[in-house]
Design brief:
The chain has about 200 residues and is an alpha+beta fold. The chain has one domain: Electron Transport, Fmn-binding Protein, Chain A (Pnp Oxidase, Chain A). Helix content is about 25%, strand content about 35%. Helix 4 crosses helix 5. It starts with 12 loop residues before the first helix and ends with a strand.
Length: about 200
């Protein structure tokens, strides 16, 4: 019985790191990618873990950074502002690849990074940031909120918009295969990544 050939990164640590960043970059550029919407983990003020889905907007392998956006009124923005350590995780069931990223997040609200991200945002995204009341507010009914029209959202949404940069400090790449799983991890020391194979 024939089997698909093993991928080039299967027993190559450097190629595994390159594949990790390639998949994250693909997640930025392709809505259908499993890595377009990773789960983000933070910790709230009481030390409880919090988990939600975000949309990956940038992945820079050279800098070792990721970016997503959020509403500055949201719980996630408050949690990151209080405790910037966070983690992201994505899983592609078809490719049988899991990627985990741990790092330190920075909120960008009124700087050039936020301005550039806002300028590049689609109209439908801008509308969400102009909604009232803010995210997580208790409502008397499911439809008891208001969204602005796309033109008004340019002005109304910008004060609530926040770009979140994550400087990765640890990476974990898991590939599942019946012939033997492969898992690799890397830790950052300054600009240098040090990696090793890990037991799956």
């Amino acid at each position: 019985m024939s089997r698909d050939p093993l991928p080039a990164f299967y027993d190559d640590l450097d190629a595994s790191l390159a594949e990790l960043w390639r998949l994250l970059a693909d997640g930025v550029g392709r809505n259908g990618s499993a890595f377009h919407t990773p789960a983000l983990a933070t910790v709230d003020g009481a030390g409880r873990p919090r988990l939600r889905t975000v949309v990956l907007r940038a992945a820079d392998s050279a800098a070792g950074t990721l970016r997503f956006h959020c509403d500055r009124r949201s719980d996630k923005a408050r949690e990151i502002g209080r405790a910037p350590l966070c983690a992201l995780q994505g899983y592609d069931a078809a490719a049988k690849v899991q990627i985990r990223v741990e790092g330190e997040a920075t909120l960008h609200t009124d700087d050039a990074i936020a301005d550039a991200a806002w300028a590049a945002a689609q109209a439908m995204s801008r509308v969400a940031y102009g909604g009232e009341p803010g995210p997580g507010t208790a409502l008397p009914s499911g439809d008891a909120y208001v969204l602005p029209d796309p033109e008004a959202a340019v002005t109304l949404g910008r004060p609530n918009f926040c770009a979140v940069g994550v400087r990765a400090t640890r990476l974990d790449f898991l590939y599942l295969d019946r012939r033997g799983h492969r898992r690799a991890g890397w830790r950052r020391d300054g600009a240098v990544w040090t990696g090793s194979w890990l037991a799956p």
